[in-house]
Amino acid sequence: MALRADSNGIDASLYRKTGSWSTALVDASLGTTAAQEAADELPGEVAKLLKSQQTPSADAEAVVSALEPAQGLRAPVARFIAVHDGQVVLNELIPGLKVDAPQVETGAFPNFTALARARGGAFSYLVAEVGRDGGEVHLYNTTSPARLASRGIVGAPEEIRHARKVPGKYDQPKAQAAADEMIRRNTEEVAQLIDEMAKDNYVRLIVLSGDIKAREAVVAALPAALQEYVEVIDAHTRTGGADSKQVQEHIAALVDEVKSSAVAALEARVAAQSGNGRSLLAVGLDEVVTALQSAQAEVVLVGQYQDEHTLRALIDEPWVAHQDGDDHAELVIGEWPAPEVLLRATALTDATIRYVPDSIIPDGAGIAALLRWAKA
Predict the structure, then answer these.
(1) What are 22's strand-pairing partners?
(2) What are 71-127's pLDDT values in tens digits?
(3) Is position 254 within any domain?
(4) What's the chain look like in SS3?
(5) 117, part of any domain
(6) Looking at the domain assignment, is residue 9 inside a domain?
(7) Which of 91, 122, 255, 348 has the most beta carbons within 10 angstroms of its beta carbon?
(8) CA atoms lying within 13 Å on the CB side of residue 28
(9) How much is the pTM?
């Protein structure tokens, strides 16, 4: 995966690899005769583009061999491939991204901008379906509709029925107490499972559905730090009584709310700095590059993509140099479009990059950065 665990940036270790890199962004849609014909022609078309860029043969063969249409996903779907020294490092589908013509590049470092733009601000979330006899917890990420993992707790429902219904075995208070204890154990185990999966995957949303009492018990058993991420759906999908389509639509709306809240929080931070002398805000390409050079940038905010600008990439710290001037000339490995060089420098300085509405950026500058410490 190119994305870091929190899915807000690119894994810097990939940029530290030396040797040849080749990337391809292509249409992977199916579903029509024209799409199938395009898929059949794609390997030859990509091979020609790679040859025109003098791509090493091992890289070209690896890219072409990784080209496959996406089965079972609604169009549009893109495929992003990154190859390093003849080995496929990334081969990922990007649902919802339309690619009109293949985009192929070969160079000293990979161009991950398409992936970062499509997945900036992505996050993991859990969907837990709980009952008195246990529950299942499913892991998703906003980058794909596919379920990534599932874990479950299976209690003993027959023991609960036995405790409640066998004549002479228990009087009513004892039967109820035994059943309540079993439910408590089961729901606490589900809560523990949610806690473990949330910590392992940096989740920012926990959707809870199922039996009302079980839901309440699970929420009560969760750590306070996770309770703020919990959203309850009044549905019991484990028993088959809920409309699954409605549930999915509800979950999608909750995911959108989290995305919108994250953008709103960034907008509020920018607005607060805009009226405070901008001591913790860099505005414009030159200021952002300067902030990246000192690892001062915490979050780089990109509205307009800066495609019309170029920047110089450096082989070592500070990783990026301004378009004009002779700073760090001895470290320059080449000059590329600004989005590629900015993304690389952001990852290598452990910053985050977010692609946001241009209205968030002050003065129509197209790019800004929230800073880790105040400007001198």
Answers:
(1) 83, 106
(2) 878 889 999 999 999 999 999 998 888 999 999 999 999 999 988 988 888 899 999
(3) no
(4) CCECCCCCCECHHHHCCCCCEEEEEEECCCCCHHHHHHHHHHHHHHHHHHHHCCCCHHHHHHHHHCCCCCCCCCCCEEEEEEEECCEEEEEEEEECCCCCCCEEEEECCCCCHHHHHHHCCCCEEEEEEEECCEEEEEEEECCEEEEEEEEEEECCHHHHHHHHHCCCCCCHHHHHHHHHHHHHHHHHHHHHHHHHHHHHHCCCCEEEEECHHHHHHHHHHCCHHHHCCEEECCCCHHHCCCCHHHHHHHHHHHHHHHHHHHHHHHHHHHHHHHCCCCCCEEECHHHHHHHHHCCCEEEEEECCCCCCCEEEEECCCCCEECCCCCCCHHHEEEEEEHHHHHHHHHHHCCCEEEECCHHHCHHHCCEEEEECCCCC
(5) no
(6) no
(7) 348
(8) 23
(9) 0.84
Establish how many alpha carbons lie within 13 A of residue 151's alpha carbon, considering only the half-sphere containing its beta carbon: 12
Mean pLDDT, rounded, for 334-362: 93
The domain in which residue 60 lies consists of 20-107
Torsion of CA 216, 221, 222, 228, to 10 degrees: 40
Asked if residue 258 is part of any domain, the answer here is: no
Give the up-direction half-sphere exposure of residue 217: CA atoms within 13 A in the CB hemisphere: 23
Burial class (CB in 10 A: 0-12, 13-18, 19+), 13: exposed
pLDDT (tens digit per residue) in 229-271: 999 998 766 555 556 788 899 999 999 999 999 999 999 999 9
